[in-house]
Amino acid sequence: MASALEHYVNNVCSLSSLGHYRELVEYLNASTELLAKNGNILDNVLETLDNNQHSLGVLYVLVAKLTNNPAPAGAETIIKLVKDFIVTCDPTQVRVALHVFEELCHLFTNYLIRCGETIQGVKIMAVAVEKIRGSDTQLTAVHADLCQLSLCSKVFDSALACLDVDITSIASTE
């Protein structure tokens, strides 16, 4: 792994273990160019980081992978990576960078549409909604991705379950 990415992994591990998530987000925002330049070896970073313990670090790597790999090449691998992350990520950490989590969901939704694999994303987006919303009656930006995938795949159960409630608040991404 390149020394700059080793530094990235070390910072993610140390700041995550200390619970300094806001400081970590500042570092990660400054590291997006580093991730974009090293897209060919981001899999090594993902192998080193744990989805639950280092959720913020993994989140930024996945966004970089989807941003730099918009074509459906290796679709099974990308789908598995994002699914595993969304299922196992720490909600406390991803809520600190909610806008980036929402960006991941949006990029992933567009990726699935291009691949023609929308049905695979419906349950994943339903889990994503549950991870980030504060209550059952809160609407999030990820709801739009869930609905888009549901409409494209003609599988409505997950979207209806999330939307068949009285919405009393809308989540802010700020």
TrEMBL record:
Q: Which domain of life is it from?
A: Eukaryota
Report domain COP9 signalosome complex subunit 3 N-terminal helical repeats positions.
19-172
Q: Name one GO biological process term.
A: ubiquitin-dependent protein catabolic process
Q: Which UniProt keywords apply?
A: Cytoplasm
GO terms for cellular component: COP9 signalosome
Q: Name one Pfam family in it.
A: COP9_hel_rpt
Question: Which protein is depicted?
Answer: COP9 signalosome complex subunit 3
Q: What is the lineage of its organism?
A: Eukaryota, Metazoa, Ecdysozoa, Arthropoda, Hexapoda
